[in-house]
Amino acid sequence: MSSSAPSPSLPSSPWRFLWMFVREGFLCRVILLNLAAAGGIGLMGLEPVAMRGLVDALAGLSDNQRSGTSAGTAGWTAEVMPWFLLLGGLWIASALFNRLRELVDLHTSPALRHAVQVRLFDQLIDHSSSYFQDNFAGTLGQKVKQAGQSSIELLEILTNDIIRIVVILAIGLTLLASAQTLFAVLLVGWTAAHLTVSALLARRCLRLSHAFSEEVSSTTGRMVDIIANAELVRAFARRRQELAGLSDALTGEIARSKELRWFLTKMWFWLFNVLLVFQITLIGIAVSDATAGRMSVGDFAMVFSLASIVGANVWGLSTRMLGFFEQLGILSGALELIVRPHGIPDPPGRPDLVVTGGAIRFEDLRFAHPGSDAGPNSGKTGAVFDGLSLTIRPGERVALVGPSGAGKSTLVRLLRRQFPLQGGRILIDGQDIAGVSLASLNRAVAEVPQLPSLFHRSIRDNIAYGSEGADDAAVRAAAARAHCDRFIEERAGGYGTMVGERGIQLSGGERQRVAIARAFLKDAPILVLDEATSSLDSETEHLIQDALLGLFEGRTVIAIAHRLSTVTGMDRILYLEGGRILEDGDHAGLLRRDGPYARLWRRQVGGFLPDESAVPAGDVPGNLREEVR
């Protein structure tokens, strides 16, 4: 599914969810699965009829041979052979229907699992940033995989187990009633009671199964979290503590598993014993009738065979009921987590953002992070912005500076609609970004973050991610402009070098240069730099600054910086503190104003001397003095 199209809404009910996929692309295959299952068990259900005829023929042949009225193979051919051929034909035909069902399932279950996982992942990836901050990545991925598997398990039960039991019960009731009405009554009563008790026990067991599943998800998420931070664990020598914590979590998983297994053991014990009692009772009555002459040997064979077939299928369905409710619970849990309203709605039909100049207008912004009790107009300090307004002209280069927590990164996140506004609006070239498609907004903004994200793919793939369909020449040109071509070519794999999970095979500076190359390739009209050169050495930073000057041409630029020497050449510098703009001007003008920016500048160029006035604004090192001019 194209990333430019918003994901369609999905049903949150597991039954509506499953039916949606069946209706949209699997209806014919599901009908074939049902027909094949019905044919296979239906023919097997006629086996007792053939068995009765064969047994009666053999009994008659034996009586004739003892009386001397028939001999040898003539009796076999005339009386036994048709029933024998019918029995063998039923077996073969039933097996062929079963193989047909397996063949149809071969083209159904994998495709259904694929469709479910793709649609759910499409729904998942459109959630807001806060959603991913609140949930383990490993847990989310596991839920998507589990939903795909649960869907095919539920379809298997519906199109095989339930169809089989319905057909075999219909045939069994008809045949048993023909032998003796009591048999049919016993079959109906026992089947209804057995399946009802099985369903009740399975639903009770579902609570235990759900608790076990949650423990597994929790321990999996914890394990993935530790693996993702393996370097941090080693750096603080916390291997033993993390292992102990994981062991404690796994102990809880073991307890839930034992509780579930013990309940299952007791449940299967009683259900299977009840099945044996039913079969023994039914066959005992048949033996009594046969010895009393009220039933032929063939009828007895038919009852015996039917009792075995019906008992096996009812037992099979009762054991599958636990799986049915368990898979239903797993699918419900996945849908509950994933199929929920997106924090940043992006309904279909919204127009694309059209950037002509790149003018940005923040109007009366009001925002507090999720979970904060400081909302708009609350008067509490927890609000990041409470009425912030700012205009950035087309092609203007603006730097955001100030202490941590001032709202610099939050401002650019709001620009990219990663958080919902609680008041005010943001305009790009006069268009409210809340009313345009999110994909077009993301295409218009290129961002180089402080901690760049890289896929566990080749360097070439990570750079080419900036432009769909980019060829090798474009990738190499972007790498050269970002001054990362040298370190790439020095590696044995060159541009095909795998960077590892989150780019772990590259240094921090190398990751940032790859991210800058990716931004070059994206060629967006609005550029956001969030400490884009913070991980670079001084020499490489100088090269990158030259390259960025080329990238700035014709673009609106917002740069976040803590190292003020990197933003002295910007058109405007905004000093933010507490979600408010305290100063606005160019570098030289702000130094002359001798306000918060000038004090921060003196602390940086003075080596963090205790006396803020120790280094006057004009008394700066030679290289920085050049930057001031």
UniProtKB/TrEMBL annotation:
Alphabetically sorted, this entry's keywords are: ATP-binding, Membrane, Nucleotide-binding, Transmembrane, Transmembrane helix
Query: What are the GO cellular component annotations?
Result: plasma membrane
Q: Identify the PROSITE patterns for this entry.
A: ABC_TM1F (PS50929), ABC_TRANSPORTER_1 (PS00211), ABC_TRANSPORTER_2 (PS50893)
UniProt-listed SUPFAM superfamilies: ABC transporter transmembrane region, P-loop containing nucleoside triphosphate hydrolases
A Gene Ontology molecular function term of the record:
ATP hydrolysis activity
Q: Where is the ABC transporter domain?
A: 360-603
Q: Which Pfam families match?
A: ABC_membrane, ABC_tran
InterPro entries on file: AAA+_ATPase, ABC1_TM_dom, ABC1_TM_sf, ABC_transporter-like_ATP-bd, ABC_transporter-like_CS, P-loop_NTPase, Type_1_exporter
Q: Which domain of life is it from?
A: Bacteria
What does the UniProt entry say about where the protein is found? Cell membrane
Q: What residue ranges are annotated as transmembrane?
A: 26-46, 80-97, 154-176, 267-288, 300-318
Q: Which ranges carry the ABC transmembrane type-1 domain? A: 31-314
Q: Tell me which positions the record assigns to the signal sequence.
A: none
Q: Which Gene3D superfamilies match?
A: ABC transporter type 1, transmembrane domain, P-loop containing nucleotide triphosphate hydrolases
User: What is this protein's function?
Assistant: Part of an ABC transporter complex. Transmembrane domains (TMD) form a pore in the inner membrane and the ATP-binding domain (NBD) is responsible for energy generation.
Q: What is this protein called?
A: ABC transporter
Source species of the chain: Azospirillum thiophilum
